[in-house]
Amino acid sequence: MNNRKLIRIIATLIVATVVGGYNYLxxxxxxxxENNPSLNSSPxxxxxxxxxxxxxxxxxxxxxxxxxxxxxxxxxxxxxLLKDDTKGTPHQKFLIKLAPDITLLVAHNTALAKRAPIHxxxxxxxxxxxxxxxxxxxxxWTHDDPKGKQEGGWIYAxxxxxx
Length: 163
Description:
This protein folds into two domains: about 1-30; about 35-160, CATH 2.40.50.200. Helix content is about 25%, strand content about 35%. It has three helices and seven strands. A five-stranded mixed β-barrel has the order 1-2-3-5-4. A hairpin with a 6-residue loop joins strand 4 (about 125-130) and strand 5.
């Protein structure tokens, strides 16, 4: 193998490593539409979707992707309060309906954040990490990051943030 060919192979490997590393490190940072051009891009003649419609569209698109996980901000109606999960780290659990076809589980870590005083029928806003599950998805990380490495999430209910 000549030197030129070897240099090309090494350069290709370096570029692939850098691009792969960048993609790996930034894959969870697409939690707002400002940081996610794919949510903002549309053909010039198509009507622009508002933020909530963009979130719903992304969830619908990813609902069959078992590896789906991304940050989002959304709002919905509390449709069911569930028993707290007390095994391991305690979590307040409830279901919210974002659209007729989208209901998500919210798992709010009460060891890291104050319990949100919500009731069935309440409207809540949430910033959380969506993760696929076989029932439509779960929203978690509704609290500050205890290590301070990333921006955390929150639940906004009754005029107050719980994070």
